[in-house]
Amino acid sequence: MSEGAEENKGILTAKHVTKQFPAAKGRILTACEDVSLEIEKGRTLGIVGESGCGKSTLLRMLCGIEKPSSGHIFFQGWEITNLRGEERRQMHRHIQMIFQDPMEAFHPAMRAGEIIEESIRNYAAVPKSERASRERELLKAVDLPESFADRYPHQMSGGQRQRVGIARALAPDPEILLCDEATSALDVAAQKNVLDILSRLQREREISIGFVSHDLALVSSFADRVAVMYLGHVVEILDAEDVADHALHPYTKAMLDSIFDIHMDFSREIPVIRGEAPSPLNMPPGCPFCDRCSKACEDCRKKKPVLREAEPGHFVACEEV
Amino acid sequence: MKKRSAFIWKHKVFSVLLLLAFLILLIVIFPEILTSKDPNAAVMMDALQAPSRAHPFGTDKLGRDLFARVVYGARTSVPTAFLLVFLIFSIGSFLGIIAGYFGGFIDALIMRIADIMIAFPGLVLAMAIVGILGPNLMNAVLAIAAVSWPKYARLARSLVLKIRQRDYVAAAVLTGSRTGYILRRYMFRLSLPTLIVTAATDIGKMMLEMAALSFLGFGAQPPTPEWGLMLNEGRSYLQIAPWLMIYPGLAMFLVVSVFNLIGDSLRDLLDTAQEE
Predict the structure, then answer these.
(1) pTM across the whole model
(2) Which chain A residues are Cβ-neighbours of B176 within 8 angstroms?
(3) How far does A169 lie from chain B, in Å, by closest CA?
(4) Which residues of A227-248 are buried (b: 16+ CB within 10 A; e: fewer)?
(5) Is A106 an 8 Å CB contact of chain B?
(6) CA A204 to CA A28: how far, in whole Å?
(7) Which secondary structure element, helix H or strand E, spans residue A48, and what is its range?
(8) Which candidate among A57, A282, B89, B166 keeps its CA 20 to 30 Å from the CA of A146?
């Protein structure tokens, strides 16, 4: 691997990943374009963006459910982009995913116990006699009583379902957990509960987390690093603690302005981002955000900005800041 | 027990139909309950007698008791229909699930073969197949199976195409489930209710197809008591002995109706169960 030196820190790295889907009438939908980012070991990367910006597609590529159209994905320096068969199955045990809709994520006719057991059994790391105790241990790890093993997903609340999802994801003892809007279908209390469990697991097991959400405030309080996505592009990557005060990209700033806060001045007009995001079927040649950006100039419409390091550890894809 | 009676009360029609189907199966297994006569015992002296106390449905041209032949005819028609449905259900669902799940070349291959089978008029192709294999009951079953499986393959494929997009399939892949397990536990298990309903409504249809082949002389061969064949044998006597066609036809009508209605109410049952 030529770029081996750069992969030291990142446990999961995406390099120039592009995903295109064929759409009707021979058009092409570009979900992700030239995305490069990394999840660091034992830390949390938050990925933020509005719906349809390609963040879920990116996550699905990172865990190998979708294959990128081009680009490479490395897990601990091991290229996992195009694995097949048994090799792919062995790769999956390292990278697990928690799904957005916990109702969609379970076989409708399986009890929680079977769901978790399926995951324990598949990698045969646990002998039959110990499966039951392992199952109890996993339920305990997500604060669910043992009796939940006999319940069906539709007999649980959203938060409980999501915790069963976490238990299932933990069963193969993964190094990485990818959460696809894992909390956005939950009420605030259940949200906090799930986030608490995730951060405790991270402390206890040194798990690295990729956390996708549309909620910038939530992500910057929960994650260590934040990547902001817009229309399939990563426009800014920075430390989570810098988001509030040092964000540079106009899109990130606009998002920050639209966060509601209990202390905010409600008499002030809420700034809105003008216009609609362009269609991913028709990618603009220049900066994807230029139509809605207050700072856009002629150059922005012609040339696509690339991520550059504005400050140490702070990357931004904008020429005007 | 209480649960069962509640179920029967809630689904009265279905329960009655199930009881009727059970009675039909009972007759299939123990035809002696209804008649002590041998369906193949020919008494030429009694040929073509009208229904009477001794022969409730009359006798045919060889003097065989028509009632016994109609009763024993169920023994031919019902099991072959079940066998046929089982065959097309298993072959069609298996191929459809494989095609839908793997897609690509395998999908194209299986579905084009299915299209070819569908493009032929079913009964004509079945006749051609029996013509090649030789006319008997088993070959008729194979022939009808060969032209009927694509329906299940298409249905299973379309169901699987929908199921495999769901997150829980992605989750199963991620947690290391092997392909065979996913096909069994997810694809087959979750498309089963719809496939079963189709199979239930097909029992009657398959019975008619078998009877049609037998009527044309491509299925059951004399002296087997089979309704389609009996209709054909009675055809030339329609003017002087109409009972030869009326009673086998009536038997077929009743049995096919029962199984069709079971299929329909089974669909209603599973639909409401899914909504709940």
Answers:
(1) 0.86
(2) 89, 92-93, 119, 122-123, 172
(3) 7
(4) bbbbbbbbbbbbebebbeeebb
(5) yes
(6) 44
(7) strand A44-48
(8) B166
A176-180 and A95-98 strand pairing: parallel
Cα–Cα distance measured from residue B85 to residue B87, given in angstroms and rounded to the nearest whole number: 5
Res B273: pLDDT: 67
Query: For A168, which of B173, B175, B185 is closest by C-beta distance?
Result: B175
Quick one: tokens of A269?
Answer: 């007009």
Amino acid identity of residue B212, one-letter, is A
pLDDT tens digits for range A153-211: 888 988 899 999 999 999 988 999 999 988 888 888 899 999 999 999 999 999 999 99
Is any Cβ of chain B less than 8 angstroms from the Cβ of A224?
A: no
On chain B, the residues whose CB falls within 8 A of the CB of A118 are 172, 175, 177
- Whether this model's ipTM surpasses 0.90 comes out as no
CA distance B263 to B276: 20
Cα–Cα dist A218/A21, whole Å: 30
Chain A, nearest residue to B165 by Cα: A104
Q: Which residue has the tokens 């995913």?
A: A97
Residue type, B112: R
Chain A from 56 to 85: CB within 8 A of any B CB: 60, 63-65
Going from N- to C-terminal start, the domains of chain B cover 80-275
Query: CA nearest B172: which of A194, A100, A121, A201?
Result: A121
Asked if A99's CB is within 8 angstroms of B170's CB, the reply is: yes
Q: B80-275 is classed in which CATH architecture?
A: Orthogonal Bundle (1.10)
Q: What angle do CA B121, B126, B129 make, to 5 degrees?
A: 130
The CATH architecture to which A4-94+174-316 belongs is: 3-Layer(aba) Sandwich (3.40)
Mind telling me how many Å the CA of B195 is from chain A's nearest CA? 17
In three-state secondary structure terms, A19 is strand
> Radius of gyration (Cα) for chain A, nearest Å?
20
pLDDT digits (tens, 9 = 90+) for A262-302: 777 777 776 677 777 788 888 888 888 888 888 888 888 88
Distance CA A255, CA A217 (A): 9
Q: A109 at the B interface (CB within 8 A)?
A: yes
